[in-house]
Each structure stands twice: as C-alpha cells, then as structure tokens.
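Researcher: We plan to redesign the surface later, but first we want a full-length starting point. Tokens attached.
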C-alpha cells in the first residue's frame, strides 16, 4: 500500500470515528463542500450562517493533521510539511495546530470541547490567555494551542521558532479583521502567517469573502443555506411590554427558549428584573424542565458566592426561570448561566451583544430591543446578523424567529435599509484593512521586524502580503505596491531614484477631478482647499507636517500627493521625508537597527514597544511619564498603583468611564488585602469587571518593568516588580 493510500485509509477511518463521537449522521451544505478540501493543503475561507457546522470542518482538518502525523512518526517527533518559506526542523516533540478566537469564553469552551469530545484521542491541548499561564515548555510540547488573536501574537514574539512547527492556524470570527480596535493586530498576524502555515478562516457574516480569499490565496467555501429557517419581524410600538410578554408566553408554552438582547448592560439587568415574575408564572404553569429547587441546588453545588452584587441577583432570577448575561459577571457565573440555559432550566436569557459572538446557546427566538449601542451608534451589520442568527439552532428547533422592536416607523425604515438590501437579502459590512494611518503602519512595521528580523527586501515582501497592500493594489488596478512601500518606508535610502518612484505613484491616485480652489498662508501654516467631486477638503501644512481632513487613506492621500507634486523638487523631498520614510525615522529615533547581513531588528527600545503592543506615540508618552512624572514623584507602592490605574486606556467606556471608580476597590484589595467579595459588596461592583481591570493593570505594569530598566530608573523598576507581585498574588488567591 502506498503512503497516499495509507493516508486516505487513515482519513476515512478517522472521519467515521469523529462523526460517531459527535453523533452526526448527515453533513450540512457547507460541510459537503468542504469535505474534499480537508485532505488538501489549501488555505480555506469558510463563510456560512451560524449553526451550519463550520467548526467541525476546522476540527477535522486539525485532528486529521495531528493524528496522522502522530501515527506516521510512531508517536514521536513529527515533521513539517513543505510550505513556502517554511523551515524544516524536527526538534519539536509534536507538530501543532492553532485555534484563534476573539474571546476568552470561546477559548475556554473550545478547549473543553477538545478535551471532552475528543478524549479518546488523548490530545495535548494548551490554553494560553495571559502571562500567568505562559509556559514555553508546555507550548512547545502541545499539539493544539488555543488562544486569542492578541495573546498568540505575544506568544510568537516570545517564541518565534514556534512557527517552524505550526501546520494549521484556524481563525474564528475572522470578520474582526475590520474591527477598529482589533483589526490591526489580526492583520499583522495573518500577514506574518500567510505562506508559512495552512490558514482556515471561519465567519458567518461578511460582505466581501471573495476579496479575503483572494488576499490569502485561499479557496472560498460559501453557503447561505441555514439548516433551520429564520424569520424576521419588526414591531413598531411605544409600549413593547405586552408584545414581549406574549412572545415569552408562547415560547415557554412550546418548551422553547429565548434570548433577549439589550443595548447596554444596565438595560439587560433591568429587563431581567422587570419580567422575572411574569416568566416565573409561565414556567410554573407550562415548563416541563423548570424546577426551582433543582436550580438552587445546582448553584449551591458550584459554590457560587451569593453575597456579591451580580451573583445575588443571579440566584434570585435563576429560580424564576430567567437571568442576565454580560461581561461584568465572573467566569464562574457566566458558565453557570450558560449551563442552566443549555439544560433548559432557564427559559429566557437577557443579554448584551457580547453573547452574539459568544458561546453556542440554543434558542428558538431572539428579540433585539436595541439596534443601536449605548453611544447611539448603530450595531455593526455583522454583529446584528450574528445576534439574529442565534435563533433556530440545529438539533433543537425546526425554525427560528428574530423579532426587532422599534419606537416609530421612520426608525423601522432605517433598520430595514441598514440591515437588508432592496432585494430583501441580508446586508453585511465590508471588511476593510485597519492599517489606515502612519501610526498603525509604524506599529505593524515594528511588529513584523521584531518577529522576523527581515532584510529590507524581505520586509517589503512581507508588507506586500498585507491586506492593506492588497486593497491598495486593487485601487491601483494591480500595480505592484513595491514602489509605494519603498517610499513610505525608506525614502532617501531606497535604491531607485526618489523622483521616479514618486511619479510612479500617480497610478495610485485619480487626480483629474481634483482641483485646488483656495490657498491661505498664515504666519506659520498653510491651508489648501480642494474641490473633490461634490466634497470640499482642506489640507494643512504646518512645520513641514501634513494634515488632511479627507475620508480617504490617512497614510498618503491624493490631496497630500497633489500638493507635494506641485512643490519644487527639493522641497517635495524634504516634506516627504519629514512625513513618511517610516523606516529611516524609526532607525534615526533608535527603535530599529541593521545587524550584520543587512537584517533589520528592533533595538531594546523597539523590542519593549513591540512587547507592549502600543503605537510609537503611546510608547513615548509612557517613557516621558516614567522619566518626568513618576521618577520625580518617587511614588510609594500605593501612589504608584493609583498612577498606573489612571494611565490605563479605556477600552470599554460604557463600563469603566475613566477608571476612577476602581481606585478605592483596587487599593483595598491589593494594598490592604481585604476580602475580594466584601469589596465587591461595599462598592456594588461586578466581579468580572474588577477582575478584568486588575488583570489588565497587571499586564500593563509587567510591560513597564523592562521600560524602567532600559531608562535606568532602577528604583522605579523595583517598585513596579513589587506591585506586579502584589497584583498577581491578590488576583490568583481569588481564583
């Protein structure tokens, strides 16, 4: 029997075993399309509705790869496949696959699924979510690593040789490539991975899957077929209470479950309390699975603390057949709610959009009470349809319903226009690159150089694989991005003459309809006004720095290009180098250097910036803060804790505001060592919020330790180390 026949025979046996384990008798539409691709080495972009079985495809790819390599090598060292640019190295004890997900809850669920469902295969699975669980030996000896996008980027930075042993990388919810806060990290990661591993990308909601597939040289597997039909209804009313009660009554009578989405956490809690007694009456009367005593016993067996604000309300509501679910709850509380819902002990769950991309909870009907977020911004189309898609889960229901509530007809029309096409098809957001400014491009360049240590030519090639460049080249109608990147990165040291490269950029821009209609010269600045089609755009030139208020590319827009094009040659070069020539500036400013062999690498300063995963502006702000504020103040541990907390970025404004509400609780917990639960009760805080702020604070302080050492602020470094130890000790004594 040939090696190919052996592999095919092994795969056939493995598929039968896995389908039996998962109790699957029929493949879905997308699974049938993907089946023949599982054994291939092609990158895959898989887009299908929620519940269509995308995850099984990825799991089959990973298990087939892992178990066949294990069998082939007799349980010993595995080999790497011959991917382009892949180093051949057999030192690792096992070949690996990576699962990347957007949320910790999803990572934990995926880990549990691999360890329980696939227990007979004795898989070596490693979950990595923070510095606390960072174990290089475990990572190198694992077969499957499960993490978030941001965490895996840190892992690769610290163990760059890991990539030599990675076979497959699965990216779940890859539409977050277009997310403002997370897209830059995911794009940098995919740019680094493409061509080196097999990529498998999964999403239910995206408007331009063919573009993503083309970028990654991937095969697109697409299905719009839902296993369970989904019906949408929009109800316009100023008093939704009666309609909501009617829907709840119908579902409880039918032994079906519901998810009710609110725009804010507060609304989710308030709605759960408002409808709890009504739901309890319906459950007592109609539900066959509702048992108040059983629910109470279950919660008490979990030893879920009753006395914290969030948990106390969960105990009360769960015994009435309902609950709420949002990011403020502890992991234990969220797991308890999810488990009770899966067991049909909770009939109606009130939640926020975070559950839309969260764990798999079966519901026949979804109600969306708010199509706008807490700041009055629309829900993204992708999030909206993810939320709606939670209704009608395979294996539970024959149909699904999504009911949307709004207060007036005009808003109803706006909802229809935003989320559906004229042909009544679902409308999704186009996923765009989030490398949109010089700041994000600089950050990406430093990240790539830190991980890869490339030559200039290799750097251009790596950046040429970015989604940013792919879209730029599409705008330039297929023209190579090399000249563009050489100018942006290196400027005066590029091998080709500056003027030739600069003029080649005319292909990128359409300047025919662009007119300068006004110029104003102040004492130390210039303002140039353009007529761009129907729009008026203003560009400001001050101290040689260009700022344009256009909605186009902020890296190099056509307005800046036209202004420079009209300048005298020497002035044009001077202005360009001052605004662009990123690599030259980063070298001159001490973030990068060239090492023997003409390879680029980060300096100590650049390495610290890369590991902090911040922009150059943020890094320099932190540096100045350490030198000119903290060092001069000679802070105590307490004042240092307060200063660091104030410096934390506000990632969730609805929850955290400016972090000041956490000053006293964290001081009491970390410095005074008071009981965590008592602090929560006293300050009326949710456990998940305080835990998350403390974890983020700990990671922030850990990143400042090498920065303080680099700056020679050794006493400050010792203070940071003491504070990091106190945080670690306090946080994990609560777990």
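Model: Full-length starting sequence:
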């Amino acid at each position: 029997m040939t090696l190919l026949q052996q592999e095919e025979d092994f795969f056939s046996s493995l598929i039968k075993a896995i389908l039996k384990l998962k109790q699957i008798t029929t493949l879905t539409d997308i699974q049938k399309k993907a089946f023949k691709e599982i054994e291939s080495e092609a990158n895959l972009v898989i887009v299908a509705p929620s519940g269509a079985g995308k995850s099984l495809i990825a799991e089959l790819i990973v298990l087939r790869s892992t178990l066949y390599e294990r069998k082939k090598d007799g349980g010993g060292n595995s080999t790497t496949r011959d991917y382009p640019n892949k180093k051949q190295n057999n030192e690792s004890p096992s070949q690996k696959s990576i699962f990347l997900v957007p949320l910790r809850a999803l990572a934990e669920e995926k880990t549990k699924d691999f360890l329980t469902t696939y227990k007979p295969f004795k898989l070596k699975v490693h979950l990595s979510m923070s510095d606390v669980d960072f174990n290089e030996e475990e990572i190198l000896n694992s077969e499957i690593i499960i993490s978030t996008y941001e965490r895996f980027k840190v892992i690769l930075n610290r163990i760059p040789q890991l990539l030599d042993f990675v076979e497959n990388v699965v990216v779940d919810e890859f539409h977050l490539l277009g997310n403002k806060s997370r897209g830059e990290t995911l794009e940098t990661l995919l740019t680094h991975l493409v061509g080196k591993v097999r990529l498998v990308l999964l999403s239910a909601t995206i408007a331009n899957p063919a573009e993503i597939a083309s970028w990654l040289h991937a095969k697109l597997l697409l299905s719009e077929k839902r296993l369970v039909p989904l019906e949408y209804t929009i109800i316009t009313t100023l008093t939704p209470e009666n309609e909501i009660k009617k829907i709840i009554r119908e579902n409880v009578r039918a032994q079906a479950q519901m998810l009710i989405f609110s725009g804010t956490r507060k609304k989710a809690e308030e709605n759960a309390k408002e409808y709890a007694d009504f739901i309890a009456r319906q459950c007592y009367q109609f539900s066959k699975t509702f048992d108040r005593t059983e629910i109470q016993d279950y919660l008490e067996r979990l030893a879920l603390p009753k006395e914290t604000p969030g948990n106390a309300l969960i105990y009360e509501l769960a015994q009435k057949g309902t609950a709420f679910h949002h990011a403020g709850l502890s992991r234990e509380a969220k797991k308890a709610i999810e488990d009770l819902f899966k067991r049909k002990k909770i009939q109606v769950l009130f939640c926020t959009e975070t559950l839309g991309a969260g764990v798999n909870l079966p519901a026949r009907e979804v109600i969306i009470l708010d199509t706008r977020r807490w700041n009055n911004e629309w829900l993204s189309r992708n999030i909206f349809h993810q939320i709606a898609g939670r209704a009608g889960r395979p294996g539970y229901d024959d149909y699904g319903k999504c009911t949307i509530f709004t207060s007036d007809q005009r808003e109803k029309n706006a909802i229809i226009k935003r989320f559906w096409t004229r042909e009544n098809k679902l409308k999704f957001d186009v996923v765009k690159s989030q490398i949109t400014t010089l700041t994000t491009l600089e950050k990406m360049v430093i990240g790539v150089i830190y991980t890869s240590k490339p030559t200039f030519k290799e750097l251009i090639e790596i950046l040429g694989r970015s989604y940013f460049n792919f879209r730029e080249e599409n705008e330039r109608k297929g023209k190579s991005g090399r000249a563009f990147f050489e100018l942006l990165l290196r400027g005066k040291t590029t091998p080709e003459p500056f003027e030739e490269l600069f003029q080649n950029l005319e292909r990128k821009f359409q300047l025919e309809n662009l007119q300068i209609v006004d110029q104003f010269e102040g004492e130390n600045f210039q303002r140039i006004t353009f007529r761009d089609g129907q729009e008026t755009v203003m560009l400001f030139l001050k101290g040689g720095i260009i700022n344009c208020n256009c909605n186009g590319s902020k890296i190099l827009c056509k307005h800046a290009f036209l202004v420079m094009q009209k300048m005298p040659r020497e002035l044009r070069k001077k202005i360009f180098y001052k605004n662009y020539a990123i690599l030259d500036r980063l070298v001159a400013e001490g973030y990068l250097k060239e090492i023997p062999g003409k390879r680029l690498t980060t300096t100590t300063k650049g390495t610290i910036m890369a590991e902090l995963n911040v922009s150059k502006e943020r890094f320099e702000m932190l540096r100045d803060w350490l030198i000119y504020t903290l060092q001069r103040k000679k802070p105590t541990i307490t004042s240092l804790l307060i200063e660091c907390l104030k410096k934390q970025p506000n990632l969730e404004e609805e929850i955290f505001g400016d972090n000041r509400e956490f000053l006293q609780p964290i001081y009491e917990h970390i410095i005074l060592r008071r009981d965590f639960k008592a602090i929560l009760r006293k300050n009326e805080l949710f456990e998940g919020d305080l835990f998350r702020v403390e974890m983020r604070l700990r990671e922030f302080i850990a990143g400042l330790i090498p920065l303080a050492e680099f700056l020679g602020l050794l006493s400050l470094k010792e203070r940071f180390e003491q504070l990091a130890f106190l945080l670690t000790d306090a946080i994990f004594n609560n777990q």
